Amino acid sequence: MSLVKEKDLLCQQFLAKPKKLLIDGKWVEPETGKTFDTLNPATGEVLAKVSEGGKADVDKAVKAARKAFEQGPWRNKMSAAERARCLYKLADLVEQKADELAQLETLDNGKPIKESRYFDVPAVAETLRYYAGWATKLEGETINVNNSFFTYTLREPVGVVGQIIPWNFPMLMAAWKLGPALACGNTVILKPAEQTPLSALYLGELTLEAGFPEGVVNIVTGLGPNSAGEFLANHMDVDKVAFTGEDKTGREIVKASLGNLKRVSLELGGKAPNIVFADADIDAAVKGAITGIFFNQGQVCCAGSRLFLEKSVHDQFMTKLTERVGKMRQGPGLDENTQIGPQVSKEQQERVLNYVGIAQKEGAKLVCGGAAPKGDLEKGYYVKPTIFEGVNNDMRIAQEEVFGPVLAVIPFTSVEEVAEQANKTTFGLSGAVWTRDIKKAHKLAAHIKAGTIWVNCFNVLNTAVPFGGYKMSGYGRELGKHSIELYTNIKSVWVNLD
Length: 498
Ligand code: ADP
Description:
Layout: H1 12-16, E1 21-23, E2 26-28, E3 35-39, E4 46-51, H2 55-70, H3 73-76, H4 80-96, H5 98-109, H6 113-135, E5 142-143, E6 149-157, E7 160-164, H7 170-183, E8 187-191, H8 198-210, E9 217-219, H9 228-233, E10 240-244, H10 247-256, E11 263-267, E12 273-276, H11 282-294, E13 306-310, H12 311-326, H13 346-361, E14 365-368, E15 386-389, H14 396-399, E16 406-412, H15 415-422, E17 430-434, H16 438-447, E18 452-455, E19 474-475, H17 482-486, E20 488-496
Parallel strand pairs: 7-8, 7-10, 8-9, 10-11, 12-13, 12-17, 13-16, 15-16, 17-18
Antiparallel strand pairs: 1-2, 3-4, 5-6, 6-20, 11-19, 14-15
Helix pairs in contact: 4-6, 4-8, 5-6, 6-7, 11-12
Bound molecules: adenosine-5'-diphosphate.
């Protein structure tokens, strides 16, 4: 087994350091005096003790961010090009530390090291660079009203921004949030998920090295309800909250925003239909279905968790699918050969296994998986890749977000039938269609109510392409130029020329 030994880990030195809060450019102890443990999901062992930020800590961080926004050099002295340079430098530092960051991400989240190293970390650098480029390209407009007025718009940063992120792509979600917010000249308080706070703290160290002025990037670790997350969401001096996580938590964020009616953007869950027609390239669709549901242990908001199979290819597809899934190598993320790691936490493992029970009670047929593996992996939070067939779209397994490696296979006979079923969900983050018929593909792409549609592919993302939800998958679009909208205000200026 090509598992890196603990003593050889590049991130060992970082792990050994105390984990404080980054406030006003300095690492400080939490006012609460409390810490919480972050665990290695492959073993259940404690990786590090992390500061539990409370109300006083959030207050301090918001004050620092406000001061940096109103009085600091970030907006008053630095040019857009200088702000861009900080982001470019941060991207360079991420690349320099790529191996170490990848190990840290895998240790804390559980994901396969190959994914951390070749997907997450490069995507972090790419995102930061993409938005660094935007810093110098923000523009207002002039509007011809009449000869009595010179009228123009200014695109201004929103101000102090709270960013609450989840544990499935800890560092990448930090980059999706920090990149555009900072490029637009905002100041930020980032609250990483309590399950996976380490890579954000590492990124915090790198922001200091990259030259961001004090108070521009603040990082407050802590929990959600009645802790750092909630205090940030309802803080009266936070101008905007950007949130990625569960729909249930999204509602809490919206409620918390009511005090000062702060702007909110939400990227929540999904229950994506992945539709395979008989005329598709079946081998490609099988691979797509696997990536769609098992990538990142199924802990992906745009996961293809509802696989709709046209009846005439159902059996052939299932044979190929189960054969491939049966060969997937499950193990600790640090093993180079691992294709599927543990779930992020015991809580998530239990949640997923609970859904297995629910699906069985509802009459879905378990084809493979459905349990935690025994033996060497027992201490970790693993769930075997799981497939249910004979699922009906009304079952809970087809309607509720499992957020784990559980695929619900639903047979269909006509385009009309599958088109209707695809939209029978409260979510609308993504969907996919596999067919060689371009008319069918485009018609369904227009019909499915979701923010991203993939045709003959799945889980393809790019920093330049917007991402976000319809319906209960949230509102606002991240990535591309659309993220700039989330982090700027438009001001209209009228100059009387008479
Ligand atoms: P999960 O339930 O899968 O852990 P969450 O949506 O609860 O996902 O978590 C995403 C992020 O939201 C985490 O950083 C978490 O600490 C935070 N969070 C959870 N509850 C709240 C809340 N009530 N207010 C603000 N943040 C919260």
